[in-house]
Amino acid sequence: MPIAGAMDRYAYRIANILAGNQETAAVIEMTDSGAAFKFDQEQFVAVCGADMQGKLNGKLISNWSSFFVPKQGELRFDAAISGCRTYLAIRGGIEVPPVLGSRSTYTRAKIGGYEGRALRQGDVLYVGQDSAAPTGPRRLQSQYMPQYTPEVNLRVLLGPQDNMFTGNAIQTFFNSAYTIAGQADRAGYPLKGPKILPLGKEADIVSDAVGLGAIQIASNGRPFIVTADHHTTRGFAKIGYVIRVDLSKLAQAKPGDKIRFTAVAEQDAIKALQYEQQTYNMIAAHSK
Q: Locate the Carboxyltransferase domain: which residues (predicted)?
């Protein structure tokens, strides 16, 4: 069973902070284009991530902000004009039954979330009780808002099978720009660009565990980045792993966008993770 859950962990966490929720409260993730939501009662909500030109009762809302939706209010989202995924958090979270300790939806196995599937027109959602601290309407400070661009740089830890590739192949991997293929989805991002050739005839291995952010080199020599709904085992060599912090940047990239890789050390990845947690703490402190 994969982790599933939010593709963009950063936008998800910030949305819950702005909504005054516990950090694991269930939210709604929208990809590429949004939906319309009618509220039977007044609710306090937050919207973060891609700019889907959200409107409350016909008036534009600010992204990366929290606000009240009045009783019988309508919140509507259109196609994303910046980024790829938008997160809607409601104070208290979305009330869905936990599965294996999670409220995430894994649609490939049809489990979790709302009936194990994507939402449809006419679905009725209920508000849960996963609120944390009282908070009021606010907009996130600009220095904490990511800027989504058509070229993304991802930091990478080499291994565990980087020894299956020549030095020239690894150099090609880090010096090249790759394009996200149209088949990119929640399971992974296939990339188009220069081939990464292994020392042997192919980069196949005995199937082993695959973690979030793994960069597999498929039999066609092209990189494939594993994301939230990934297979838990695969038989392709993993040249490296995208560090956890940078997966949020990848989640907001779309087919046609460019990807470049930069090698970092383990201590750099740890520092990035620590800085991200400090950011959450600072934003949460300002919400009180």
A: 2-280
